[in-house]
Amino acid sequence: MKNVTPNHTPYLEMKGITKRFPGVLALDNIDFSVELGKVIALVGENGAGKSTLMKILSGILTKDQGEILIEGKQVEIDGPLTARNLGISIIYQELMDITNMNIAENIFIGREKRKGLFADKKEMHEQAKELLTRVALDIDPQTKVAKLSTAQRQMIEVAKALSVDAKVIIMDEPTSSLTETETEVLFQIIDRLKKENVAIVFISHRMNEITRISDEVAVMRDGQMVGRLNKDEIDEQRIISMMVGREINDIFAKEEAEISDIALEVKNLNTDFLKDISFHVRKGEVLGFAGLVGAGRSEVMRAVFGIDKKESGEIFIHGKKVEIRNTVDALNHGIGFVPENRKEQGLVLGMSVRSNASLAALNKISKLNFIDKKKEVELADKYIKDFQIRTPSREQLVQNLSGGNQQKVVISKWMATKPDILILDEPTRGVDVGAKKEIHLLMSQLAKQGVAVIMISSELPEVIGMSDRIVVMHEGRIKGEITRDNASQESIMRTALS
Amino acid sequence: MSEKTNGQSILDITRNRVLKSSSFNIFLVLLLMCIAMYIVSEPFRSIDNVLAIARNFSSYATTGVGVSLVIISGGIDLSLGSVFGLAGVISCMGMVNFGLPVFPSILLGLAAGALFGLFNGVLVVKAKLPPFIATLGTLSIARSLCYILTEGYPVTGVDTRFLFLGQGYIAGIPTPIWIMAIVAVIFAIFLNQTVTGRRIYALGGNEEATRISGISVNKIKVLTYTLCSLLAAFAGIITASRLGIGQPTAGQGFEMDAIAAVIIGGASLDGGEGTVTGTILGAAIMGVLRNALVLLSIKSHWQSLIIGFVIIIAVTADQLKKSRGK
Q1: Does A359 contact chain B (CB < 8 Å)?
Q2: Which of A121, A186, A270, A459 is surrounded by the most beta carbons within 10 Å?
Q3: End-to-end CA distance of chain B, in Å?
Q4: For residues A45 and A436, what is the distance between their CA atoms, to the nearest angstrom?
């Protein structure tokens, strides 16, 4: 580990950065530096303070204490615009582009090229085209962003950063919603950026990616910088133990459970996208859904849960045919659904941990429509304790929690309904190693209690590690089913693409 | 970490809650206004004046409680000024034209209001109209109905017993103030203690997440619009009683007063935020302000201008406070 000051001045330095949120010391005297032409990975569990640190660097948040230096000169970053002018660009985990505008408009938003009073569309089009080539995207700049895939939208963000001559590009979990091929393309672009002498700060939870592309790794834990590893010191086990402060041995907390009767059966489900979907899941079973991003896995679950309209198809629960026209029906039939996107679909961000945890189970803790506040508090405290949700109190607004803890609140919400069937869509996306293990353990325990668990995951090792059976989808169809014994990354990909 | 909260005494927690609640700031503003007026204006100090203020603002406070529900759920209701007028007209017509007794006439007016609210709700959830558009339409429709039903003339000759609602006193306090207080208490309990109330906040905070939590958001929306119009109708009927006539023009522009009370009271037009207490205090601030402007002999033309600025300042202060909190 490198604790000595390097003998030359790094391009960008952050010194003694401290940031306090209501009830939490988010950053405690952090030192961090970035060098041109290098990729530095910033890792740590959720809530470690990575995103907060980067938000300070990119001007979204202001620091309480500390200083930021560029080429040895102190700078004051008081807003995103200042950061951009200093050559710092950030690409968020949740993309913030304006989807009803086209690519060129998105790239040049806020600094449109002008010809007199009017926007110079031709010039912007030309420049956008050139930028798109630099990020290996062969698309017309007039295309609406809404039509692009997540990966493509991410490339647009990179192009946007390039267009302002960014010296430092921060990527906050850029690969969390990318497929493997898309990730590969992103890495090639990162390599190219390195050659162009751009510094990259890469935030990720995926060890294989970190070990592959980083020149240095900085590890954070609980708002502190625990250490920094050079290229030759980078090692997966070492990083993980620094992150969690303890050794993690087996990553998948899969436990044997007794698998019995069929809990949920879906027959010949069709929507405008899905074709002839049939599958079943048994009590005590973990059924994995694998496939590329956009294969239609979430769409199946949304239709089953009554969010999206079904054109045809039958659903049986415990052998009985049921109608699920809306989410109320789904809830009443004992189905729980942890959606893909916790901030937009899973949580009411402006409400407390308590109110979110009890939201789906209010009927269970009320009499004559009056909420039994005592039971509600007990419910919230139980899950805060059971799932080790890190929050100063149950009254904390969930928007102030880290991603992993937010996800635990979403899961609490469904656990409180005591579901027979629990659907989890990408339950560990953007969640740190420790929380991930806890979520896996939880799934195993649920299965043991006889709950039928359905898990969608884009991480093949996770699907393989956790599932008793895997349904493989591709382009709106089920392509096959693989048992636990036959599951491997190759067999899944082969089935998907056969 | 939760031990920290358990360790605090209940007194501390209560004190924190009171100090931190946005209603407390609004209360301070109201208090300051009252103290200032108490010092500069002799007539402000009389009990009669205070009761007159409260009776005046009770109409948009009562309606404001209804609009709070809609605004907290993330919607908006522009139609309530017309519903206010229509309900007054219909109640009076019940007595004068249909020869109904007092109580059924009041129910008739309330039913008309509730029906309009139901209609608003259905337009929003079934026809998927933006609430602004749906209620802009019904604003116009309800007002037109006032004129069609009355041919533009006030409905006169109501039963004198009807006048108790707007002109009467109970224990020395005007009836409309009692009604406002009862409505406020009922709806404060409704919002804070019941499942439906919680769901209204959740809906305004994040509609998608609320739907995915197995909650029928459509039912809640229809309910909020219905309750909102019902309360607007109630306030309209009380006002008709106070005037002693069913005035087809009653409540014109009234929706803005009610919405302003809610916004000054700390609710956010984005939904998910707002309280009944805040709304009542917001209405009180507007009431005291209007009274002050009269007592200080400021010409009535200036009143709306000053109230406009108060709305802008109140919301700006609230935004600043929120952004500092982040």
Answers
A1: yes
A2: A186
A3: 22
A4: 10
Residues of chain B contacting A222 with CB distance shorter than 8 Å:
none
Helix (H, G, I), strand (E, B) or coil at A314: strand
Are B269 and B262 contacting, i.e. CB atoms less than 8 angstroms apart?
Answer: no
Strand-strand pairing, A12-21 and A65-70: antiparallel
Element (H, E) at B259: helix B254-264
Q: CATH assignment of B52-325, given 2.40.50, 3.20.20, 1.10.3470, 3.40.50?
A: 1.10.3470
Nearest in space to B213 (alpha carbons), one of B205, B275, A457? B205
CA distance A387 to A45: 15
Longest dimension (CA), chain B: 68
**Is A22 in Cβ contact with B195 (below 8 Å)?**
no
Interface contact A413, partner B, CB < 8 A: yes
Mention every residue, 6+ apart, whose C-beta is less than 8 A from residue A391: A353, A384, A400, A401, A405, B1
Inter-chain residue contact A392 with B1, CB threshold 8 Å: yes
A307 touches chain B (CB under 8 A): yes
DSSP state of A59: T
Contact status of A350 with chain B (Cβ, < 8 Å): yes
Determine, for residues B206 and A370 on separate chains, whether the beta-carbon distance falls below 8 Å.
Answer: no
Of residues A94 and B124, more confidence is placed in B124
Beta bridge mates, A290? A472
Strand A118-119 and strand A370-371: the pairing is unpaired
More confident residue, A489 or A343: A343
Rounded Cα distance between B116 and B198, Å, is: 24
Task: Check A351 against B272: CB less than 8 A apart.
Answer: yes
What is the average pLDDT across A399-409? 88
Q: What is the pLDDT of residues B256-266, one digit of tens each?
A: 889 999 999 98
Answer yes or no: do B212 and A337 touch at CB < 8 A.
yes
* A347 touching chain B per CB within 8 A: yes
Q: Does A419 touch chain B (CB under 8 A)?
A: no
Q: What is the model's pLDDT at position B318?
A: 73
Q: Do A359 and B213 touch (CB under 8 A)?
A: yes
Confidence of residue A160 (pLDDT cuts 50, 70, 90): confident
In chain A the domains, ranked by start, together with CATH numbers, are: 12-244 (3.40.50.300), 262-497 (3.40.50.300)
pLDDT per position as a tens digit, B225-237 = 999 999 999 999 9
A444 within 8 A of A257, measured Cβ to Cβ: yes
Q: Which residue of B has its CA nearest to A61?
A: B326
User: Do A348 and B209 make contact, defined as CB atoms within 8 angstroms?
Assistant: yes
Supply the DSSP string of A438-475, one letter for each residue. HHHHHHHHHHHTT-EEEEE-S-HHHHHHH-SEEEEEET
The alpha-carbon gap from B1 to the nearest alpha carbon of chain A, in Å, equals: 6
In this predicted structure, what is the pLDDT of residue B209?
A: 95
The answer, yes or no, to whether ipTM is higher than 0.95 is no
Decide if B201 and A351 are in contact by the 8 Å CB cutoff.
yes
Distance CA A444, CA B300 (A): 71
Which residues, including other chains, have CB under 8 Å from residue A322's CB and lie 6 or more apart? A315, A316, A329, A333
* A24 inside 8 A of chain B by CB: no
Distance from CA of A102 to the nearest CA of B (A): 25
Compare CB distances from B195 to A331, A348, A369 and report the shortest one's residue.
A369
Region A416-434: mean pLDDT is 89
Closest chain B residue to A307, measured at CA: B212
A363 in contact with B, Cβ within 8 Å: yes
pLDDT more than 70, % of chain A: 95
A359 vs B201: CB contact, 8 Å cut-off? no
- State how far the alpha carbon of A300 is from the alpha carbons of A324, A331, A446, B42, in Å: 13, 17, 22, 72
Looking at residue A235, what is its pLDDT?
85
Domain ranges in chain B are 52-325
